[in-house]
Specification:
Number of strands: 5
Strand content: 35-45%
Strand order of the largest sheet: 3-2-1-4-5
CATH superfamily of the domain at 18-66: Nucleic acid-binding proteins
Structural class: mainly beta
Number of helices: 1
Shape: flat
Order of helices and strands: HEEEEE
CATH class of the domain at 18-66: Mainly Beta
Length: 77
């Protein structure tokens, strides 16, 4: 069992900020221009190198990791 206040442990996990999915469209040194999943472009930073058109997760203006490049399939029922 975890020691400490369970509420504080929960808050530590949930207050990190949400990750957003984006696609890299341009790179200039450590600055990347990305297209957000819902539309719109923004500039973010990363010390790691990412290729153009790669999917990434963004949090608070930083690229935090690669995102899986899963195919989109729409099924009508």
């Amino acid at each position: 069992m975890a020691s400490g206040n369970l509420w504080q442990l929960f808050k530590g996990v949930t207050e990190q900020g949400a990750k957003q999915l984006a696609t890299v469209i341009d790179r200039n040194s450590s600055n990347y221009t990305v297209t957000m999943q819902g539309g719109g472009n923004t500039i973010v930073q990363s010390s790691a190198a990412y290729e153009l058109q790669s999917k990434v997760f963004i949090r608070e203006g930083q690229i935090v990791s690669d995102a899986p490049d899963l195919p989109f399939t729409e099924i009508e029922v």
